[in-house]
Specification:
The complex is a heterodimer of chains A (435) and B (98). With 435 residues, chain A is α/β, with parallel strands linked by helices. Among the domains of chain A are: 208 residues, FAD/NAD(P)-binding domain, CATH 3.50.50.60; 66 residues, no CATH class. Helix content of chain A is 37%, strand content 26%. Chain A has 14 helices and 17 strands. In chain A, the strands form three sheets. In chain A, strands 1, 2, 7, 8, 9, 10, 16 and 17 form an eight-stranded mixed beta sheet that branches. The longest helix of chain A has 32 residues. The model of chain B has no long low-confidence stretch (mean pLDDT 94). In chain B, a hairpin with a 5-residue loop joins strand 3 and strand 4. Chain B has a single domain, classed as Alpha-Beta Plaits. The longest helix of chain B is centred in the middle third of the chain and has 9 residues. The chains are: A alpha/beta (435), B alpha+beta (98). Chains A and B meet through helix 3, strand 11, helix 6, helix 7 and strand 15 of A and helix 1, helix 2, helix 3 and strand 6 of B.
Chain lengths: 435, 98
Amino acid sequence: MIEERFDAIVVGAGMAGNAAALTMAKRGMKVLQLERGEYSGSKNVQGAILYADMLEKLIPDFREEAPLERHLVEQRFWMLDDKSHVGLHYRSDDFNEEKPNRYTIIRAQFDKWFSSKVKEAGATVLCETTVTELAQDAYGKVIGVKTDRRDGEIHADVVVLAEGVNGLLGTRAGLRERPKPENVALAVKEMHFLPRETIEARFNLKGDEGAVIEAVGTISRGMTGMGFIYSNKECISLGIGCLVADFQKTGETPYGLLERFKQHPSVAPLIEGSEVKEYAAHLIPEGGYNAIPQLCGDGWVVVGDAAQLNNAVHREGSNLAMTSGRIAAEAIFQVKSRRDPMTKENLALYKKMLEDSFVIKDLKKYKDMPALLHNQSQNFFLTYPQLVSKAMQNFVRVDGTPKKEKESSTLRSFVNARSWTGLFGDAFRFARAWR
Amino acid sequence: MTTEVAVRVEDKLFYNRYLVDAGRAHIKVRPHTTPTPQLLSLLKACPARCYELNDKGQVEITADGCVECGTCRVIGEASGDIEWSYPRGGYGVLFKFG
């Protein structure tokens, strides 16, 4: 056992872990952070979009030195059938502001920088160390961790579990369940490299402006899922994700979906001639509010993806991770400042503070959405995109058919596919889940 | 609609960097004679195609190209079909971009 004792051990160096370790170290706590990768970032996978507000709360002047790719000026939502896309695009020069709101980032590079800030703040960061188990006393209180290093048991007053969506420790210790196949999506992603000017021309961008596309429709073959295309400076992150339960049910392959998405006529020209330099896969928590496990106990708290904190509707995860990490650290610091023990009752302050933040409020708002989209995936991801595409084609194609006939044919196609009850029911259920 | 795209996953994995911990596979398949539905679904769900059928019809894993996503754990750990651990510190996939 390592004799040195820490105020807190943080397991994991992703967004949540780095936010927690930074916040506690800045307040003078003795922090040890453990990461299994060769550096912070080498095991971390995300789209990725960074939300400035949540990082500003941790590192106000991050824009001066963080490795950022492009600030986003344009968001495109696409609904695809096999040959077309119907799009809702929002682009605004307002986003060319002094302190932009959203950026694309490359996680391996960003996390390495984030970790350098954690070290500067005084935390001890130990990489290439896999935590194998939580150390618990006879009463089940978490007193530290066991690692794969020799004499690898290390003790601390509190352990922050920032171990990611596929975190093993909490499950092994019986603190939370393993994610269920219907509550996580598997996303696969490729990094497509192209000259900077080519990316800017294809996405209609100037300088460091960026655009993102998010696409639903027949690309997920009736499964609950989404494709994404994010512009970085010299590469494009392109991927697609669907619920694991749907992959199991349909026998579709993730790489098969990815190839089909890349070959879609609306997508292929964007990446034409690119050089792929990486293929990654990652799970995304999709269960929302109802899938959040117990957030704290005697000697431990859980943050970020490990706590399933992800807003699937708005595709926000890293900001919830950062915020939960920061709030957990602030709660721990308050408990420590009062010289109270790190019991479940005292650490419940973290849960309360999180409930008062946007993190739990947003997840609560959409608590019925995951189940709705999963149960109705054929309708929302296959039938409607096909109908909408047909309706648009009918609307814009000029072929001598009187407009009135065109409209009734469009209406008929909707009613035939879903019936009046179905249409109103879907609209009602969707509105209720959105509310 | 059902046109299949030929994909060579091994070509995709070739882009990636790995440090393989020889002789210490971090995922193990429980020995079996007939695979469960969970195990069979891994043949297609695993994004790195680590799972293959052998000539006896059993599911085998070669975890060298594993991208450590955890999909097979979510599908097959609860039933005891597989045992899942993270590779030792520093080993496994080494993402350049992530």
